[in-house]
Structures are given as structure tokens and as C-alpha cells.
Design a protein that fits this description.
By secondary structure, this protein is α+β, with helices and mostly antiparallel strands. It has helices at 6-12, 33-46, 96-106, 122-127, 135-138, 168-177, 211-222, 256-263, 283-289, 316-327, 375-389, 411-416, 420-430, and strands spanning 26-29, 50-53, 69-72, 79-82, 87-91, 110-111, 145-151, 157-161, 187-194, 196-197, 201-208, 229-237, 245-253, 275-276, 279-280, 301-309, 333-339, 361-369. The chain has three domains: 6-72, Uridine Diphospho-n-acetylenolpyruvylglucosamine Reductase, domain 2; 79-197, Uridine Diphospho-n-acetylenolpyruvylglucosamine Reductase, domain 3, CATH 3.30.465; 201-412, Vanillyl-alcohol Oxidase, Chain A, domain 3. The chain contains 13 helices and 18 strands. The two termini are 30 Å apart.
Length: 449
Amino acid sequence: MERGDPAYDEATFIGNELYADRRPAYVVMAHSVADVAAAMQWAKAHDVPFSVKSGGHSYAGYCLNRGGVMVDLSPMQEVVVDTESMTVRVGGGARWLHVYEELAAVNRNFMVMGGICPTVGVGGATLGGGINLFSRSFGLTIDTLVAMTIMTASGDVVDLSASDELDDDLRELWWAVRGGGGGNFGIVLSMTLRIFEMGPIAIGSLSWDDLGTFEEALAVVNSGLPREVAVDAVWVKPDADAPTTGSMTVSGLGSVAQCQTALGEIFSPRLAPSRSTLSPQVFVEWDEADKVWDPFTHGTFFYHVGFIFGPGRITPDLLTAVRELMDGAPSKSVFHWNHVGAACTEIPADATAYRWRDGEYVATAKIYWHDETDTATCMDWAQRVKDRLTPYAIDGRASYINYIENPFEGWQEAYYGANYERLRDVKSMIDPEGFFTFPLSIEPREVAR
């Protein structure tokens, strides 16, 4: 399809007007591996840009291009549950909600370590690492990845896994796709993930009328919690003139009472939340109900910056900085973190391309606006947040590739740390001409752009 086709507009809309000027000449809705291969071959033959949309949203707009071909994998969303091997095979165009619904149809207690937002594409999220409410107990998505099938820049379809039968080059590619980020090494056609049969789980929101009490409660989180419990904290400013509020999304293995006990002083009379929705849950139902903002609303501009903080780094100084930045936000803004650590730290930092294994809080600051004339003001605020909070990050730089930004100085080290040079080696081996490219793509050694 091409411009003028209503389906073209739907396929290229990513929920972020900031990148609306990125308009591919053609969109290919891929229903098969053959469709993907034909689109890639055509782009090569005509020497035009090429990009891939894995079915979800791309807030930084890197699934789009100007004047080239975009392949939309969303028709390839088959989800196959195998209860014998306790794995699920997922098509390259599936979103997390597709996976959760198919799992729940078999067993309401089945889940994978997939994304928290139901509309995110499985492929892109997994390539960057992948965070779930229960990652503290079971690891990142990539830690539960059993196999992946991708199409490389040469058009070869390769199967990747931890199999001893892989040659050295494919072993390196298997290392790279686990945290190396989307758009770098090939097109994800399918992946296989481990299924977990969960016992009772508790999920809910805790909120406070007083922001100071909320921040005091965060000191309990900062002092350390059992791996069975995670606290994702969020500050929200609904608009420029509204006060900032604070809340926590709490998730735990076991009963509500066990979760409350693990949270300790947070439920004491001094710190008790003003409201709590903590209750027994089925993950798929919570995930869909918690989608409080439609990512595909027209007329919204959006930008975010990211950070990864280490254990014990949610200090009073950091909390003061977050509050002051949020209070000064010129539009609707959110600051939140995903609580990881524990199981995620038990894999060496060089065992996969995801470098920041010692990270405990994967954070992002987001700002939304609706008037294009506010773009400079809102982007300036995002830069102020980045400048002030980056020194608190691991090594004064760590950031999560799935919260990808516009190009900035030192992004290679921020996203990949010491793993970047090895990623360049893999890129040089699998895509030496840099066919898969975008402003923050890993650069092969042979090609200078």
C-alpha cells in the first residue's frame, strides 16, 4: 500500500505526532516469510530505506522511514501454546496482549515474562531485554527466551537458541539479539518463550494524598525487598497547573497478606497509603484493565528520557530532584520506574547483550503535549530531566534501550556499556553493509555513516 490508502495511514500511525513527517513511500503488510523477503529484496534493488514495525507502537518513530519501504508484521501474530514443553511460540507481529489472552485460554495461571503494556509488540520489546512485574522473581524476557527465528540482511532465515549445534557466528548472534535492541540484526519472524504457571499473585495500586508520605514509603523500597515483591513507583502531573501525585504498583507472589507483610512499614499507621487496590489477580485481566492511556490516540506529541539506577540509589537527593522536575513540568508528565534486580542480577553482565544487570530501577520520564507550538518547551524540559538525573544512573550514564531516545552523545555506552564493541563485531559479521540502519543503530566496523 502507499500514501492515500486509508490502511497506509493506520499502519504508519504510531501514537506520536512528533515523528509524523517520517513517511515511507510504501507499506507492506507481511502475512508470510515470503512477503518479508520480497519486500526486503525490493528495497535493496531500488536502494531505498527499509524499516520494520513489529506490530506494536514505536514512540521514537524508528519503525518509520522517509521515502522507503516499511514492513508491518502485525498480520503475523500467531500464538501457539505448548503445554508439554511449557513454551509458547509467538509470531513476529504479535502484541503482548495476544500472548496473554492465548495463555489464559489454556490456563488462567499461565504467563510469560512479557511487557507490562498490552499493546507493545513482542519482537521489539524482547530484543531490548523485556521487563515484567515479576522479573525480580523470574528474570527479563530475554532470560526466558528459548528460541528465535530471524531473517538476516542477506535474506537467510536462521534459527537461534542455546543449542550446542549452532556455529560460532550464530552463537554470537544469539548473544546479540538478547538485549541488543530492535532494528539491528534482522527481522524477528517468531520467538519461543518459557511459560510459568503462577500460583496466587497479588497486584494493585497504592496511592497517597500527601506526596511527602509517598516519598517516605519509597525509602522502605530502597532499603530492599524480597525478590517475590516488586514496587513500580510513578509520579504523575496531569497538566502544567496540576499538582504532582505519587503512587506505587505493587506485585507479589502469594497472597495479599504475604505481600503486605513483605512491604513491612509501608502498611504501618505512619506510612499507610490513602488508597489501596492490592488484591488477588489474574495477570492478563490486570494488564488490560491497567491500560489507562490509549497509545494510539491522534493529536498527541510524546517524548521520554531514560535511566537505570542501582540498588540503594533512590536517595532523598534523587527524590527531591524528581519532585522539583515534575513540579516544573510544562505539560502532562510522568516519571516512573520498573523494579527489577534480584533474578535479573544473577546472569553475568556479558552473558547477553543486556549490560546493566546490576540495575534495580529502570526509569523513564515522559512528557505529552497536544499543540505543536509547545514542542520546544516540552523538549527542553525533557533535556533538563536528563541532565539532572543521569549522574544518579549506573556509571553516570546507564539507560534502557527500550526507552530509546533521539540521538545523543554517548548513547552507545548509555545503552550497551562495555558490550557495545562486541555488538559491533556481530553487526559486522551479520550485516556488514549496514542494511538495517536508523539513527541509533549499531554500526558495523566496515561502514562509516
